[in-house]
Amino acid sequence: MHSDPIADMLTRIRNAAKAGQSRVTIKASKICEGVAQVLKQEGYIAGFDRIDDACKQGVLRVELKYAMDGAPAITEIKRISKTGRRVYSPVDELPYIMNGMGVAIISTNKGIMTDSQCRKENVSGEILCTVS
């Protein structure tokens, strides 16, 4: 059993994108679905769907997105808040990733959202990861 499902998800996406695969399967959880939803909204992945299997947990099938020249849409995906060290940030100190070209994914009390959505709604939270 993996102790950090978000780190496992990000590693699988990173490795699949570098290998040029069209899709990747990830163990399903609510937080992983939230991260996948944000990645889809921001245009980093083509889509995802949850597949319930024989075990109760199920899997997420994530469709990766590539440019016309074959370059992956996700150039860098990095875990910020880890199991041993949680990173929380107030709304006025949320990071700007690549001067606004990238996105930080934040876990708030209103759900998983991007840094720009957090600034708009004036909520702070735990910085899960950054994507560019």
Summarize the structure in words.
The chain is α+β, with helices and mostly antiparallel strands. Helix content is 26%, strand content 30%. It is built from 3 helices and 8 strands. The protein has helices at 5-19, 30-41, 115-121, and strands at 23-27, 45-51, 59-64, 77-79, 88-89, 103-108, 111-114, 125-131. Strands 4, 5, 6, 7 and 8 form a 5-stranded antiparallel sheet that branches. Strands 1-3-2 form a 3-stranded antiparallel sheet, with helices on one face. The longest helix has 15 residues, at 5-19. 29% of the residues are buried.
User: What level of helicity do the residues show?
Assistant: 25-40%
Query: What structural class do the secondary elements suggest?
Result: alpha+beta
Give the radius of gyration.
Answer: 15 Å
Strand residues, percent: 25-35%
Q: How would you sum up the major sheet?
A: 5 strands, antiparallel
- The H/E string reads HEHEEEEEEHE
Silhouette: globular
Average pLDDT figure: 94
The total strand number stands at 8
Number of helices: 3
The residue ranges in which pLDDT falls below 50 over 5 or more consecutive positions are none
Span between termini: 29 Å
Secondary-structure blueprint:
Layout: H1 5-19, E1 23-27, H2 30-41, E2 45-51, E3 59-64, E4 77-79, E5 88-89, E6 103-108, E7 111-114, H3 115-121, E8 125-131
Antiparallel strand pairs: 1-3, 2-3, 4-8, 5-8, 6-7, 6-8
Summarize the structure.
The chain is 26% helix and 30% strand.
Which structural traits does this protein have?
132 residues; five-stranded antiparallel β-sheet; three-stranded antiparallel β-sheet
